[in-house]
Amino acid sequence: MKPYEDVIIFMVTLFVANYFWKFTFVGDEDGELVTWFGIDVTAPFEFIACHIAQAVYWLVGLFRDTVYMVGEHTVRFEHGGGSTIIWGCTGLKQSFIWMCLILTVKSLKDGRLWLHKLWYIPVGWLCCYAFNILRIFLITLFMEFHPEWFHVLHDYIFKYMFYAMLFGLWVIFVEKIRPSVSAR
Fold this sequence. Notes:
By secondary structure, this protein is mainly α. It has one domain. It contains 5 helices and 6 strands. The strands form 2 sheets. It has a 3-stranded antiparallel beta sheet with strand order 1-2-3. A 3-stranded antiparallel beta sheet has the order 4-5-6. Strand 1 and strand 2 form a beta hairpin. Helix 1 packs antiparallel against helix 3 and helix 3 runs parallel beside helix 5. The two termini are 26 Å apart. 25% of the residues are buried.
C-alpha cells in the first residue's frame, strides 16, 4: 500500500474535488447565471470567459484573417465554424482541482512542505491558464474547416490532455520538490 499511497491520494482527491465542483457549481450553457450553493457567482466566470475569448481571437488572428468576434464570447470564421466560450470553459474547475491536489500532498518529514505549496499552486494555476487558452485556440482553429471534430477534441482529446498535464505537474511536485524539501 505504501508505494501507491500518493497515487491513491491523488485519485481520491481528483474524484472528490471534481464531484464537489459538479454538485456545488451550477450554470446554464449560455453562462447567463452561475451559482455556487445557490449564490450568484456569474461575474468572475463572465469576466474570465470574455478574457479567454479575446485572447483566443487574438491568437487565431495571428494565423487566420477570416476570424471575427460575435459578442463577447464567440469567435467565428467567415466560412462558418468557431467557438463560444462559456463559464465551463474558463479553466477554473481545473485550477480548483489543481489546488486540492497539491494541498493533499503529504509531507515526508517536518511539515515545511507547505511553504513550497504556496509557490507551486500559483505555478500550476498559470499552467492551467496557459493550457486552457492553448486548448481553446487549437479547437477554434479546427472549427473553421472541421466543425464535426468539436466533440472529439473538446470532450476527449483536450480534456484528458488537461488532466495529464495536471498529473505531470503533480508528479514533479511529489517526486522532485517534496524529496528536496525533506532532504534538508
